[in-house]
Amino acid sequence: MKTHWKNYQNPDYIGAYSFQPKERKIVTINTTERKVIKGPNNREDECLVVYFIEDIKPMICNATNSKAISKVVGSPYVEDWPSTKIELYVDSNVKAFGDTVEAVRVKSTAPVIKKPTMTEAQKRSAAEKDASRELVEKHYSITDEDWDEIESYKTEPSNEG
Length: 161
Fold this sequence. Notes:
The structure is a single chain. With 161 residues, the protein is of the alpha+beta class. It has two domains: 5-106, no CATH class; 120-154, no CATH class. It is built from four helices and five strands. It has helices spanning 63-73, 120-128, 133-139, 144-155; strands at 25-38, 44-52, 59-61, 85-96, 99-106. The chain has a five-stranded antiparallel beta sheet, covered by helices on one side. A hairpin with a 5-residue loop joins strand 1 (25-38) and strand 2. It starts with 24 loop residues before the first strand and ends in a 6-residue tail after the last helix. The mean pLDDT is 89.
């Protein structure tokens, strides 16, 4: 993995320099905050900063990314954004300050996250814990047959004794 020189210029916030070539990051919004940020030439700007649950730098959220997050969440209100998964990527064709630069962008559709299928041991564990189907489906991709199998484990006689 290579380190972009800009990582040393702005160590507090995520930028295009925080990505490897063609890398995408799926992150979960934790909180948002209105914050005064010192920019180039010590200019202070009031910005929206988005913090993530994952171990990743926060993002200064411009209007373009705010609109994309609003589309993913289905709400323009930042209070509705926490717990939302978004996908970050680098766009190399952003026009800014009379130049074409790289910038972090938020994909305007929700990321597709493939859930794992359950192993036999995980099915038995779910049955032992009397887990609801809703809870199981939050973490695993299951079919009706999988759920029937979990339910059948709930009725098996115990080997304890």
